[in-house]
Design goal:
The protein is mainly beta. About 10% of the residues lie in helices and about 50% in strands. The protein is built from 5 helices and 12 strands. It has helices at about 20, 180-185, 190-195, 240, 245-250, and strands spanning about 30-45, 50-65, 65-70, 75-80, 85-95, 115-125, 135-145, 150-165, 165-180, 205-220, 225-235, 250-264. A 12-stranded antiparallel barrel has the order 1-2-3-4-5-6-7-8-9-10-11-12. The two termini are about 25 Å apart.
Length: about 260
């Protein structure tokens, strides 16, 4: 957990465990973590059937009980200092919708949004390195930039299938609920937009926007260098799926990314 403009925000907490970030248990008296940068691809907008290239960025920096996590165009701070429980503030930048081909391109442009909120997660089972752990997570974000003025809540669960010195694999499942303000902004068609685009008027309400699945992987060539990747897809539901914007595009919303990683 991942909408098109924040496709990497849903990378689960397992990327922050010692198996990914460093060799051995975390040490409170030094800075430790990893950073990964590379290309990614995600739908141009909610409901699009075309992709755009965006940066695929992931990173964790731990120091003195705090952990800063960066995922794509967003980031969060885990203030819990606990191997099981994590919580803290979240910030995300959601890219806008403009310069789009077809009828959707005749609708009003949407500016990029800045969203603020928080998250809480808890890990069940697994050893210190996270092998076999099941992690549940909830995040809530509110637009503070007057772009969509909406509220989103994403619930997810991830499973740490493999934790080895050089290889880690995770699977995740998630669902996102959005309020009416978000739905109307990204999936609605008003009278002016209908006249300009030929699409029928449509005003969706609040509800579950999508469900999604994903695979996260990391492979370390050396103790310092490796590759981090993600492949996932979400499926639009209910009123989101009924939008004329989605009917012009696709209910399936894939995301992929591959990055060179360095851990320290």
């Amino acid at each position: 957990m991942f909408p098109p403009s924040s496709a990497w925000a849903a990378l689960p907490l397992v990327f922050a465990t010692p198996a990914f970030a460093q060799e051995g248990p975390p040490q409170e008296d030094r800075v430790a973590g990893f950073i990964a940068v590379g290309p990614g691809a995600t739908p141009e907008y909610d409901g699009a059937d075309t992709l755009r290239v965006i940066p695929f960025v992931a990173g964790d920096v731990r120091w003195n009980g705090l952990e800063v996590q960066v995922r794509g165009l967003g980031g969060r701070v885990d203030v819990a200092s606990d191997l099981r429980l994590a919580f803290g503030p979240v910030v995300n930048i959601r890219l806008g919708r403009d310069d789009v081909d077809g009828p959707v391109g005749d609708l009003a442009d949407i500016d990029a949004a800045i969203e603020l909120g928080g998250f809480i997660a808890y890990r069940f089972g697994g050893g210190r390195d996270g092998q076999g752990a099941l992690t549940s997570e909830l995040s809530v974000l509110q637009d503070v930039s007057d772009s969509h003025d909406g509220l989103l809540a994403t619930a997810g669960v991830s499973y740490a299938a493999v934790r080895r010195r050089s290889l880690a694999l995770d699977f995740d499942l998630r669902a996102t609920w959005v309020d009416e303000d978000y739905s109307v902004t990204y999936l609605g068609v008003d009278a002016v937009g209908a006249a300009a685009s030929g699409l029928p008027e449509y005003r969706p309400g609040s509800g579950v926007r999508d469900i999604g699945v994903g695979l996260n992987a990391a492979y370390w060539f050396t103790p310092r260098l490796g590759l981090v990747g993600r492949a996932g897809a979400s499926y639009l539901l209910d009123e989101a799926a009924d939008s004329p914007i989605v009917e012009e595009g696709d209910r399936w919303q894939p995301t992929v990314g591959l990055a060179l990683a360095y851990r320290f």
